[in-house]
Design a protein that fits this description.
- The protein is built from two helices and nine strands.
- By secondary structure, it is an alpha+beta fold.
- A seven-stranded antiparallel β-sheet has the order 4-3-2-1-9-8-5, with helices on one face. A two-stranded antiparallel ribbon has the order 6-7.
- A hairpin with a 2-residue loop joins strand 6 (about 120) and strand 7.
- It is elongated, with a radius of gyration of 21 Å.
- This is Transporter.
- Pfam families: bPH_11 (PF25362).
């Protein structure tokens, strides 16, 4: 390899690194702006009550995210709702508790739940044949969102769907 080819290759590599860095930075700015726009729309999440009954059903799996209903790809990025994480989903008589690793828990009051169903796609995540449990609920601000959860064992969804009916 001669020196002209080497210099050209190094310049091309440097330009490529700069372009990739700029694209990543623009993606991060877009994520932050979306979160700021949604913050007023989402408002504050409901607090968990001081006392709840015994959990009737519990699932282990992954919180895949929340979306603005009825759009399955309009991901909520406000707060820490946009971050995927391992989680435990528990159903209580008063509502549903989603305990996430390295994120705040999400309490969904029973009175706010309008539907529990399975979805193939939610928040940009693809589940195999109805692989995502989607909980549609109304926030205190009046906005409806779908919260997605993918369990390790999808056969356990039947109990969740029956309880919702």
């Amino acid at each position: 390899m001669n020196s002209a080819t080497l210099v050209g290759s190094l310049i091309f590599a440097a330009v490529l690194v700069v372009v990739i860095a700029v694209v990543i930075q623009l993606m991060m700015v877009g994520w932050r702006r979306r979160a700021q726009r949604q913050q007023d729309l989402i408002g504050t999440l409901p607090d968990m009550p001081d006392e709840v009954g015994a959990a009737s059903t519990t699932l282990r799996g992954v919180y895949v995210g929340s979306t603005l209903a009825p759009e399955p790809n309009e991901r909520v990025t406000a707060g820490d709702l946009g971050y995927r994480s391992k989680a435990v989903l528990s159903r209580y008589p008063e509502g549903i508790l989603l305990e996430r690793i390295r994120a705040n828990p999400i309490w969904i009051p029973q009175t706010a739940i309008s539907e529990v169903r399975t979805e193939r796609v939610l928040a940009g995540k693809l589940g195999s044949r109805s692989g995502i449990l989607a909980i549609r609920w109304r926030l205190p601000s009046g906005v409806e969102i779908d919260t997605g959860f993918r369990a390790g064992n999808r056969d356990e969804y039947d109990g969740w769907l029956e309880e919702a009916a």
